[in-house]
Specification:
The chain is 54% helix and 9% strand. It is an alpha+beta fold and 386 residues long.
Length: 386
């Protein structure tokens, strides 16, 4: 006999909107549901990989058009999914402001805002934040894993829990690696264009002062800045002054050959030149190595954050590594228990035997299906059926 709460869970939801669309979005019993969500999960993986590869300079320069159009296609698919959720949800306002509703919206909003001709959004700092929001798509994988776990019956979980547990674990691991790598990349690495001037200012013979509007954040003590596109001043130099508010970068060039090529009375044209922080986190794939080392608590020390935001990301990533390690040990422990003793819930079976109950006893049952015993009454002895 089921309770009213169980009946409510087991009851088929009332379709909202077109039946075929509702079934595809919310009915796990339909084939369209599994096909659609399998496709969406694949697209989420692909979008995460493409977003990471886009930060590699070689790939971005060579395949810039591919990254641009693939982003438009992916955002278009997620937009259709968001609209379908609105159509098939009874309480639309509640969905929009729910946690997963906000994730769905933030997954598509950055691209549309970047495409909009809004002056306030042309700042490189704002665009960097918007690009970070794209990585929230991987959280949709966690939602799919939770839904799949909720739809799995208790018998199926007991019979073969390892594949489902490993799936959830690797989805969580993938999400943490992608999100942490992206955040540490944007926190530690930045680049921008130098303002074109008729001549570079030289406070001292070996000091060169540049201006840029794309600067943000802090530079680590004794940090370095790479200059490219100036021909004569290209290289990685010690930064003597970093003022993001005023847009000033002052570098010390101690290379005698470079100084000989730029006499004090000779103007230096820097039109089209760029600057970049001299950081080890030059791309998301490169930062993924640091993330794996941090999550596994190995800590080689070959890569480490130097900015305050980067250190905050590193601290959270380290704690996430401990949580993922505990999750993995729990999964392995249950698998070994099932392999050695035939069931992962040996303690529960021992309690059932001690109480005179059949091994298949389910604590949620009110009466034993074999003898009709009320499990709340410990004075009654279990009588097996004839």
């Amino acid at each position: 006999m089921t309770t009213p709460e169980q009946n409510e869970i087991l009851a088929e939801p009332t379709p909202v909107g077109p039946t075929w669309l509702f079934n595809a979005m919310h009915s796990p019993k339909s084939r369209a549901y599994h096909l659609l969500h399998g496709l969406l999960n694949t697209i989420i993986f692909v979008s995460a990989i493409i977003g990471a590869l886009e930060t590699v300079d070689v790939f971005h320069t060579k395949y810039g058009a591919f990254f641009h159009y693939s982003e438009l296609v992916i955002v278009g698919i997620f937009t259709l999914e968001y609209i379908a959720n609105l159509i098939t949800t009874k309480d639309k306002l509640r969905y929009v402001f729910s946690f997963w509703g906000m994730i769905d919206l933030l997954a598509i909003m950055p691209t549309y805002l970047a495409m909009a001709n809004i002056t306030a959004l042309k700042s490189t700092r704002i665009l960097r934040v918007l690009r970070v929001l794209r990585v929230l798509r991987v959280l949709k994988l966690a939602r799919e894993a939770l839904v799949a776990m909720q739809q799995t019956s208790a018998a199926e979980k007991r019979r073969n829990p390892l594949p489902m547990n490993l799936t959830i674990y690797f989805l969580a691991l993938f999400s943490v690696v992608i999100i942490s790598s992206t955040l540490i990349y944007f926190a530690e690495y930045s680049t921008g264009e130098l303002e074109a001037t008729e001549s570079v200012e030289r406070p001292k013979p070996n000091h060169f002062l540049f201006h840029s509007k794309d600067m943000h954040g802090d530079l680590a003590p004794s940090g370095k800045v790479s200059i490219s596109g100036t021909d004569k001043l290209d290289g990685t130099w010690i930064c003597k002054k970093w003022d993001s508010a005023a847009g000033i970068i002052e570098v010390l060039i101690d290379d005698a050959e470079v100084l000989e090529d730029v006499p004090a009375d000779q103007p230096i044209q820097i039109k089209g030149a760029r600057w970049a922080k001299d950081s080890q986190f030059t791309s998301v794939p490169n930062a993924s190595w640091w993330c794996v080392v941090t999550l596994t608590t190995v800590g080689y020390g070959d890569m480490y954050p130097v900015t305050t935001p980067g250190r905050i990301v590193a601290g959270v990533t380290a704690f996430m590594g401990l949580a993922l390690f505990g999750m993995l040990m729990n999964i392995i422990g249950k698998a070994m228990m099932a392999a050695l003793f035939g069931s992962e819930d040996v303690e529960g079976e021992d309690k059932a035997k001690a109480a005179g109950l059949p091994p298949e006893w389910n604590p949620s049952w009110r009466h034993c299906p074999t003898c009709g015993k009320d499990h709340t009454d410990s004075t009654q002895a279990h009588q097996p059926s004839a």
